[in-house]
Design brief:
By secondary structure, the chain is an alpha+beta fold. Helices cover 25% and strands 37% of the residues. It has nine helices and 21 strands. The strands form four sheets. It has a six-stranded mixed beta sheet with strand order 7-8-9-3-10-11, sandwiched between helices. The radius of gyration is 24 Å and the shape is globular. The two termini are 41 Å apart. The relative contact order is 0.12.
Protein backbone atom coordinates (compact mmCIF):
# COMPACT_ATOMS: atom_id res chain seq x y z
CA UNK A 1 0.00 0.00 0.00
CA UNK A 2 1.31 3.53 -0.77
CA UNK A 3 1.79 6.02 2.07
CA UNK A 4 -1.05 8.24 3.26
CA UNK A 5 0.06 11.87 2.96
CA UNK A 6 -1.74 14.74 4.68
CA UNK A 7 -0.40 18.11 3.56
CA UNK A 8 -1.09 21.58 5.01
CA UNK A 9 -4.61 20.58 6.06
CA UNK A 10 -6.80 23.42 7.26
CA UNK A 11 -10.31 23.14 8.64
CA UNK A 12 -12.66 25.69 10.14
CA UNK A 13 -15.83 25.05 12.14
CA UNK A 14 -17.90 28.20 12.40
CA UNK A 15 -15.52 31.00 13.37
CA UNK A 16 -12.95 28.64 14.87
CA UNK A 17 -9.87 27.37 13.05
CA UNK A 18 -9.59 23.77 14.25
CA UNK A 19 -6.74 22.62 11.97
CA UNK A 20 -4.13 25.23 11.09
CA UNK A 21 -1.93 23.66 8.46
CA UNK A 22 -1.35 20.08 9.64
CA UNK A 23 1.00 17.83 7.66
CA UNK A 24 2.06 14.25 8.37
CA UNK A 25 2.60 10.91 6.65
CA UNK A 26 1.45 7.38 7.52
CA UNK A 27 4.03 5.02 5.99
CA UNK A 28 2.69 1.73 4.67
CA UNK A 29 2.47 -0.89 7.40
CA UNK A 30 2.91 1.58 10.25
CA UNK A 31 0.67 3.04 12.95
CA UNK A 32 0.59 6.78 13.59
CA UNK A 33 -0.98 8.03 16.83
CA UNK A 34 -2.65 11.44 16.89
CA UNK A 35 -2.05 12.55 20.46
CA UNK A 36 -2.96 15.73 22.28
CA UNK A 37 -5.22 17.34 24.88
CA UNK A 38 -8.95 17.91 24.40
CA UNK A 39 -9.52 20.54 21.75
CA UNK A 40 -6.19 19.98 19.99
CA UNK A 41 -7.92 18.83 16.78
CA UNK A 42 -7.00 15.14 16.73
CA UNK A 43 -10.53 13.73 16.26
CA UNK A 44 -11.40 16.42 13.70
CA UNK A 45 -8.23 15.48 11.80
CA UNK A 46 -9.21 11.80 11.81
CA UNK A 47 -12.71 12.66 10.62
CA UNK A 48 -11.24 14.78 7.81
CA UNK A 49 -9.17 11.81 6.64
CA UNK A 50 -12.28 9.62 6.84
CA UNK A 51 -14.32 12.08 4.77
CA UNK A 52 -16.67 13.02 7.63
CA UNK A 53 -15.44 16.63 7.85
CA UNK A 54 -14.61 18.98 4.97
CA UNK A 55 -11.37 21.00 5.20
CA UNK A 56 -10.99 24.32 3.38
CA UNK A 57 -7.32 23.92 2.52
CA UNK A 58 -4.61 21.35 1.93
CA UNK A 59 -4.76 17.80 0.63
CA UNK A 60 -5.16 14.14 1.64
CA UNK A 61 -4.00 11.29 -0.60
CA UNK A 62 -2.91 7.66 -0.64
CA UNK A 63 -0.34 7.33 -3.38
CA UNK A 64 -1.74 8.96 -6.52
CA UNK A 65 -5.36 8.65 -5.27
CA UNK A 66 -6.49 12.03 -3.95
CA UNK A 67 -9.16 11.91 -1.25
CA UNK A 68 -9.21 15.69 -0.87
CA UNK A 69 -7.41 18.50 -2.63
CA UNK A 70 -8.61 22.04 -2.09
CA UNK A 71 -6.52 23.45 -4.94
CA UNK A 72 -7.95 20.99 -7.49
CA UNK A 73 -11.50 20.93 -6.11
CA UNK A 74 -11.38 17.20 -5.24
CA UNK A 75 -13.39 15.71 -2.37
CA UNK A 76 -14.20 11.99 -2.36
CA UNK A 77 -17.17 11.04 -0.15
CA UNK A 78 -16.43 8.76 2.80
CA UNK A 79 -17.87 5.65 1.13
CA UNK A 80 -15.53 6.08 -1.87
CA UNK A 81 -12.37 6.25 0.25
CA UNK A 82 -12.53 2.59 1.31
CA UNK A 83 -11.10 3.19 4.80
CA UNK A 84 -11.93 1.17 7.92
CA UNK A 85 -13.29 3.25 10.80
CA UNK A 86 -13.61 2.16 14.44
CA UNK A 87 -15.65 4.54 16.59
CA UNK A 88 -15.17 5.23 20.28
CA UNK A 89 -18.72 3.99 20.98
CA UNK A 90 -18.25 0.81 18.82
CA UNK A 91 -21.66 1.58 17.18
CA UNK A 92 -22.71 -2.08 16.94
CA UNK A 93 -26.20 -3.03 15.79
CA UNK A 94 -27.82 -4.40 18.99
CA UNK A 95 -30.34 -6.57 17.08
CA UNK A 96 -27.75 -8.20 14.81
CA UNK A 97 -25.44 -11.08 15.69
CA UNK A 98 -21.67 -10.68 15.79
CA UNK A 99 -21.47 -12.33 12.36
CA UNK A 100 -24.12 -10.02 10.87
CA UNK A 101 -22.52 -6.92 12.41
CA UNK A 102 -19.22 -7.74 10.77
CA UNK A 103 -20.86 -8.81 7.49
CA UNK A 104 -23.22 -5.84 7.16
CA UNK A 105 -20.93 -3.59 5.12
CA UNK A 106 -20.01 -6.42 2.75
CA UNK A 107 -23.69 -7.10 2.13
CA UNK A 108 -24.27 -3.43 1.28
CA UNK A 109 -21.46 -3.67 -1.25
CA UNK A 110 -23.12 -6.67 -2.92
CA UNK A 111 -20.38 -9.12 -2.01
CA UNK A 112 -21.37 -12.74 -2.84
CA UNK A 113 -22.68 -14.73 0.15
CA UNK A 114 -19.94 -17.36 -0.01
CA UNK A 115 -17.23 -14.71 0.02
CA UNK A 116 -18.94 -12.89 2.91
CA UNK A 117 -18.99 -16.08 4.96
CA UNK A 118 -15.33 -16.82 4.29
CA UNK A 119 -14.11 -13.29 5.00
CA UNK A 120 -16.16 -12.81 8.16
CA UNK A 121 -15.11 -16.16 9.59
CA UNK A 122 -11.48 -15.45 8.80
CA UNK A 123 -11.64 -11.99 10.40
CA UNK A 124 -13.38 -13.24 13.55
CA UNK A 125 -10.73 -15.95 13.88
CA UNK A 126 -7.96 -13.35 13.56
CA UNK A 127 -9.33 -11.35 16.49
CA UNK A 128 -10.03 -14.39 18.68
CA UNK A 129 -13.83 -14.42 18.36
CA UNK A 130 -14.23 -17.30 15.91
CA UNK A 131 -16.69 -19.16 18.16
CA UNK A 132 -18.86 -16.13 19.06
CA UNK A 133 -20.39 -15.32 15.67
CA UNK A 134 -23.94 -16.20 16.74
CA UNK A 135 -23.94 -14.05 19.87
CA UNK A 136 -25.44 -10.57 20.13
CA UNK A 137 -23.62 -7.45 21.41
CA UNK A 138 -25.36 -7.49 24.81
CA UNK A 139 -23.96 -11.01 25.37
CA UNK A 140 -20.38 -9.78 25.00
CA UNK A 141 -17.99 -8.05 27.37
CA UNK A 142 -16.78 -4.53 26.61
CA UNK A 143 -13.49 -5.90 25.35
CA UNK A 144 -15.24 -8.36 23.04
CA UNK A 145 -17.51 -5.62 21.67
CA UNK A 146 -14.43 -3.56 20.91
CA UNK A 147 -12.96 -6.51 18.98
CA UNK A 148 -16.15 -6.85 16.94
CA UNK A 149 -15.95 -3.17 16.00
CA UNK A 150 -12.36 -3.69 14.85
CA UNK A 151 -13.36 -6.83 12.92
CA UNK A 152 -16.05 -4.86 11.10
CA UNK A 153 -13.38 -2.42 9.93
CA UNK A 154 -10.87 -5.13 9.00
CA UNK A 155 -13.27 -7.27 6.96
CA UNK A 156 -13.15 -4.81 4.03
CA UNK A 157 -9.37 -5.30 3.85
CA UNK A 158 -8.99 -1.50 3.69
CA UNK A 159 -5.68 0.24 2.94
CA UNK A 160 -5.90 2.13 6.24
CA UNK A 161 -7.70 1.66 9.57
CA UNK A 162 -8.89 4.76 11.46
CA UNK A 163 -9.21 4.20 15.21
CA UNK A 164 -11.03 6.90 17.20
CA UNK A 165 -10.12 6.26 20.86
CA UNK A 166 -11.19 2.61 20.56
CA UNK A 167 -10.05 1.66 24.08
CA UNK A 168 -11.46 4.59 26.06
CA UNK A 169 -14.68 2.80 27.07
CA UNK A 170 -12.79 -0.04 28.76
CA UNK A 171 -11.81 -0.08 32.43
CA UNK A 172 -8.13 0.34 33.33
CA UNK A 173 -7.20 -3.35 33.47
CA UNK A 174 -9.07 -4.26 30.27
CA UNK A 175 -7.56 -1.24 28.54
CA UNK A 176 -4.03 -2.48 29.29
CA UNK A 177 -4.88 -5.97 28.02
CA UNK A 178 -6.59 -4.57 24.89
CA UNK A 179 -3.61 -2.32 24.23
CA UNK A 180 -1.27 -5.31 24.12
CA UNK A 181 -3.71 -7.33 22.02
CA UNK A 182 -4.23 -4.50 19.52
CA UNK A 183 -0.49 -3.91 19.11
CA UNK A 184 0.06 -7.64 18.52
CA UNK A 185 -2.78 -7.73 15.95
CA UNK A 186 -1.40 -4.72 14.10
CA UNK A 187 2.07 -6.26 13.97
CA UNK A 188 0.76 -9.66 12.86
CA UNK A 189 -1.44 -8.32 10.07
CA UNK A 190 0.95 -5.56 9.00
CA UNK A 191 -1.79 -2.94 9.25
CA UNK A 192 -1.53 0.75 8.43
CA UNK A 193 -3.53 2.80 10.92
CA UNK A 194 -4.20 6.19 12.43
CA UNK A 195 -4.96 5.89 16.13
CA UNK A 196 -6.51 8.85 17.99
CA UNK A 197 -5.97 8.93 21.74
CA UNK A 198 -5.46 11.34 24.62
CA UNK A 199 -3.61 8.60 26.55
CA UNK A 200 0.14 8.98 26.04
CA UNK A 201 0.91 5.48 27.36
CA UNK A 202 -1.49 4.01 24.80
CA UNK A 203 0.08 6.08 22.03
CA UNK A 204 3.62 5.04 22.95
CA UNK A 205 2.67 1.37 23.27
CA UNK A 206 0.74 1.04 20.00
CA UNK A 207 2.23 3.55 17.56
CA UNK A 208 5.35 3.52 15.41
CA UNK A 209 5.13 7.32 15.23
CA UNK A 210 3.34 9.96 17.28
CA UNK A 211 1.98 13.24 15.94
CA UNK A 212 1.51 15.51 18.96
CA UNK A 213 -1.10 18.20 18.32
CA UNK A 214 -1.46 21.51 20.11
CA UNK A 215 -4.38 23.81 19.21
CA UNK A 216 -4.61 22.60 15.63
CA UNK A 217 -0.90 22.53 14.84
CA UNK A 218 1.78 19.83 15.02
CA UNK A 219 3.85 20.51 18.14
CA UNK A 220 6.22 17.60 17.46
CA UNK A 221 6.24 14.31 15.60
CA UNK A 222 8.52 11.30 15.69
CA UNK A 223 9.08 7.94 17.30
CA UNK A 224 7.67 7.51 20.82
CA UNK A 225 11.21 7.38 22.25
CA UNK A 226 12.05 10.71 20.60
CA UNK A 227 8.99 12.50 21.98
CA UNK A 228 9.60 11.12 25.45
CA UNK A 229 13.37 11.66 25.64
CA UNK A 230 13.91 14.63 23.32
CA UNK A 231 11.01 17.09 23.63
CA UNK A 232 11.39 20.13 21.40
CA UNK A 233 9.13 22.49 23.33
CA UNK A 234 7.83 23.15 26.82
CA UNK A 235 4.40 21.90 25.70
CA UNK A 236 5.83 18.58 24.45
CA UNK A 237 7.96 18.13 27.57
CA UNK A 238 5.03 18.71 29.91
CA UNK A 239 2.50 16.68 27.93
CA UNK A 240 4.60 13.53 27.70
CA UNK A 241 5.33 11.60 30.88
CA UNK A 242 4.75 12.47 34.53
CA UNK A 243 6.76 15.55 35.36
CA UNK A 244 7.95 18.07 37.88
CA UNK A 245 8.09 21.73 36.87
CA UNK A 246 10.51 24.11 38.55
CA UNK A 247 9.92 27.79 37.78
CA UNK A 248 12.74 30.26 38.26
CA UNK A 249 15.02 32.83 36.65
CA UNK A 250 17.44 32.12 33.81
CA UNK A 251 21.03 32.84 34.90
CA UNK A 252 23.23 31.59 32.06
CA UNK A 253 23.15 29.66 28.78
CA UNK A 254 26.43 28.25 27.48
CA UNK A 255 27.72 25.10 25.79
CA UNK A 256 24.29 23.50 25.50
CA UNK A 257 23.64 23.93 29.22
CA UNK A 258 21.37 26.40 30.99
CA UNK A 259 21.53 27.48 34.61
CA UNK A 260 18.47 28.76 36.43
CA UNK A 261 17.89 30.07 39.94
CA UNK A 262 15.18 28.30 41.95
CA UNK A 263 14.42 29.21 45.57
CA UNK A 264 17.68 31.12 45.76
CA UNK A 265 19.79 28.18 44.54
CA UNK A 266 21.23 27.32 41.14
CA UNK A 267 20.26 24.32 39.03
CA UNK A 268 21.87 23.41 35.70
CA UNK A 269 20.25 21.40 32.93
CA UNK A 270 20.07 20.92 29.18
CA UNK A 271 19.31 24.18 27.39
CA UNK A 272 16.04 24.19 25.48
CA UNK A 273 15.67 27.96 25.54
CA UNK A 274 16.89 30.89 23.47
CA UNK A 275 15.87 33.46 26.09
CA UNK A 276 18.30 35.99 27.53
CA UNK A 277 19.57 35.72 31.12
CA UNK A 278 17.37 37.49 33.64
CA UNK A 279 14.10 36.25 32.15
CA UNK A 280 11.78 33.54 33.38
CA UNK A 281 12.77 29.90 32.98
CA UNK A 282 10.99 26.59 33.49
CA UNK A 283 12.79 23.36 34.34
CA UNK A 284 11.08 20.07 33.46
CA UNK A 285 12.19 16.68 34.79
CA UNK A 286 10.44 13.30 34.71
CA UNK A 287 9.42 11.83 38.06
CA UNK A 288 11.52 8.71 37.55
CA UNK A 289 14.69 10.77 36.93
CA UNK A 290 14.66 12.69 40.22
CA UNK A 291 17.10 11.26 42.79
CA UNK A 292 17.36 11.31 46.57
CA UNK A 293 20.88 12.28 47.69
CA UNK A 294 22.55 11.66 51.07
CA UNK A 295 24.14 15.13 51.40
CA UNK A 296 24.31 18.66 49.88
CA UNK A 297 25.79 19.01 46.39
CA UNK A 298 25.33 20.43 42.88
CA UNK A 299 21.78 20.43 41.52
CA UNK A 300 20.34 19.45 44.90
CA UNK A 301 17.63 21.16 46.94
CA UNK A 302 16.92 20.56 50.60
CA UNK A 303 13.22 19.71 50.83
CA UNK A 304 10.71 18.39 53.37
CA UNK A 305 9.08 15.00 52.82
CA UNK A 306 5.32 15.60 52.91
CA UNK A 307 3.85 12.26 51.85
CA UNK A 308 4.75 8.72 50.82
CA UNK A 309 2.24 6.75 48.74
CA UNK A 310 2.49 3.01 48.11
CA UNK A 311 1.73 2.16 44.47
CA UNK A 312 2.46 -1.57 44.51
CA UNK A 313 5.65 -1.89 42.51
CA UNK A 314 7.07 1.37 43.91
CA UNK A 315 6.53 4.27 46.29
CA UNK A 316 5.75 7.82 45.23
CA UNK A 317 7.34 10.45 47.47
CA UNK A 318 6.15 14.05 47.69
CA UNK A 319 8.55 16.81 48.80
CA UNK A 320 7.89 20.50 49.39
CA UNK A 321 9.82 23.71 49.91
CA UNK A 322 8.04 27.02 49.82
CA UNK A 323 5.69 27.01 46.83
CA UNK A 324 7.60 24.19 45.11
CA UNK A 325 6.31 20.60 45.21
CA UNK A 326 8.40 17.75 43.78
CA UNK A 327 7.37 14.13 43.28
CA UNK A 328 9.58 11.13 42.63
CA UNK A 329 9.57 7.34 42.72
CA UNK A 330 11.49 5.16 45.13
CA UNK A 331 11.80 1.46 45.95
CA UNK A 332 11.11 2.12 49.66
CA UNK A 333 9.68 4.94 51.78
CA UNK A 334 11.94 7.48 53.51
CA UNK A 335 11.93 8.66 57.09
CA UNK A 336 10.10 11.87 57.95
CA UNK A 337 11.93 15.18 57.80
CA UNK A 338 14.23 16.96 55.35
CA UNK A 339 16.10 15.28 52.50
CA UNK A 340 18.29 16.37 49.61
CA UNK A 341 16.48 16.04 46.28
CA UNK A 342 18.74 15.87 43.22
CA UNK A 343 17.90 16.95 39.67
CA UNK A 344 20.58 15.36 37.43
CA UNK A 345 21.73 17.94 34.82
CA UNK A 346 21.35 15.46 31.94
CA UNK A 347 17.71 14.84 32.92
CA UNK A 348 16.60 18.45 33.56
CA UNK A 349 15.37 20.41 30.52
CA UNK A 350 15.45 24.19 30.91
CA UNK A 351 12.96 26.08 28.73
Amino acid sequence: MPDLVVSDLRLRLGDSDILKGVSFTVPAGEVVALLGPSGSGKTTLLRAVAGLETPHGGSIAIGDKAFFDAARGIELPAEKRGLGLVFQSYALWPHRSVFDNVAYGLKLRGTPAAEIKARVEQTLAQIGLGDLGTRFPHQLSGGQQQRVAIARALVYEPPLILLDEPLSNLDAKLREEARAWLRALIATLGLSAIHVTHDQMEAMAIADKIVLLDAGTVAQEGKPTALYNEPESLFAAEFMGSNNRLDGTLVEVAGGRATMEVLGERLTGLARTTASPGGKAAGIIRLERVRIAPSPGPNRLKMMLKAAMYLGERWELVFARGDLTVRTHAAAPLGAGEHYVEFPPEALWVF
